[in-house]
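Before relying on records like the one below, remember that each one covers exactly one chain. Contacts with other chains, cofactors or solvent are not represented anywhere in the record.
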Amino acid sequence: MSERNKKNDSKKVIRKKRRVRNQIIAYGVVTIILIGLGIGGYIGVSRLSKEIDQLTEAAAETTQEETESVTIPEENQIEIVEPETESEPVEYSKEELLEELVQSCIDEMPLEDKVAGLFVVTPESLTGTDKVIKAGDATKEALAKYPVGGLIYFKQNIQSEEQIKEMLANTKEYSKYPIFLAVDEELGEVARVQSALQLDKTKTAKELGEISDVQATKDEYGIIGNRLLEYGFNLDFAPVADILLDENNKAIGDRSFGQDTKIVSERVSASVEALNDCGVFSCLKHFPGQGAANGDTHEGIAATTRSADDIRANELQPFVSGISAGTNMIMVGHFAAESLTGDSALPCSLSKEVMTDLLRGECQYDGVIITDALAMSAISDYYTSKEAAVKALKAGADMLLMPSDFEEAYNGVLEAVKEGTIDEQRIDDSLARVYRVKYASTIEDE
C-alpha cells in the first residue's frame, strides 16, 4: 500500500476515535444534566459540574484503540452502539493518484506558467546569451520568469562529464516545476553527448537494421540511456521511426533502421524499451514518416507524395509499434503530406488532420505530441514565431520545440488564450499529458 493510502487510513482512524469520544461526552452530559435537574439546587449544580469535569477528563484520556472503554460512574453509564459496518478504506489506483497529482499541480499554476510549460527551448533562447555551459544566476532568473517545460542541449553546451552533470543538476534545482532536460542522442553521428565527449561510437541505425538480432538494437540504446541518465538528461529525442523509402533522402539517411516496415518497427520498439528500462523518456520522430519526403525541412519546404493508404500501411507502423512499447512523446515533422491534409504546402506539424485526427484518433495515442524545431526553414520562412506556435497548438500539438523567437512565440500564445482564440482548457489538457509523463515515476506501485 502507498504512503498516501496509509495516511488516508490513519486519518480515518483518528476521525473514528473522535466520534467515539464525542458520543461519550454527549450521552454522558445529557444523562448528568437530567440527574442534576432531578436533584435540583446547590447539590445538583455542584454534582453536575463535578460529573462533567470527571467525564471530560476521562474522555480526553481515550487515546487507545476504539475497543477500549472509558470509565464512567455506574449510575451514568449508557450503552454506546457502534454501527454494525464500517466503510472500507478508499483505495486509489496508481492512475488515480497520478491524475490527482497532475491536476493539483495544474490548478495552482498561473496562466503565464502554464503557457511557458508548453515550450522546449535551448538554454541560449531562455537566457538570451550566446553560449551556455553552466547554470548560474542567469538561468535561475530566466526560469523564474519563464518556467519552460524543457530545455534542449547541443554539442556546444557540453564540455566535460562534470560540467554537464553540474549544469543539469543546477537547472533542475532552479526550475519550480519538473523539467525535461533533453538532447538528440540517436545512433551514429547524430549523438550530441557522444560527439562532444568523444565517447565510443554506437552503431548507426542502418547497421543495426542489417543485423538480424533485434537485441543488438536494445543493447546500443541501453548504452545511450545509461549515459544520459548518468549525466542528468531525462529525455532523448530518439529513436528515428522513419522508413527510408527514398535512398536520396539525405535528411534521414542512415538515421533510419532501413526500408523494411517490419524491421524498422521491431527496432523502434526495442529502442523505446531500452530507454524506458534506463529511466529515460523517449521521443519517436518524425511523424507520420519522413522517409519518402523530397527535401530537408532544415533548409526549406519538403513533401511526400505517398498515398494515405500507403502511409497507413507502412510509414505509420513503426510509430504504432513505438506507442505499444510505451513511448512518452512523438515528434511531428514539418514536411507536407497532401494525401493526409489535402494541402500540398501545409506542414504536418501545423495540421489538425495529422496530429488530432490521425495520431490522436486513428493511432489512439494519448501521450505528448511535440513539433519538430520551429526554427527550421520549412516553418520560419513562411510563418512568424507567433503564428507557428498558435497554429501548432490549435492543430493538436502539446509542446512547441525551439521557435525562432521564443519570447514572441510565448507572448503570442499567452495573448491567444487571453483573447479566447485558444481555450485555456486546451492548454490544461496539453499540460496534463506533459505532467503525466513527468510525474509517473513518482507514483509507486502498491
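The chain has two domains: 3-76, 94-442.
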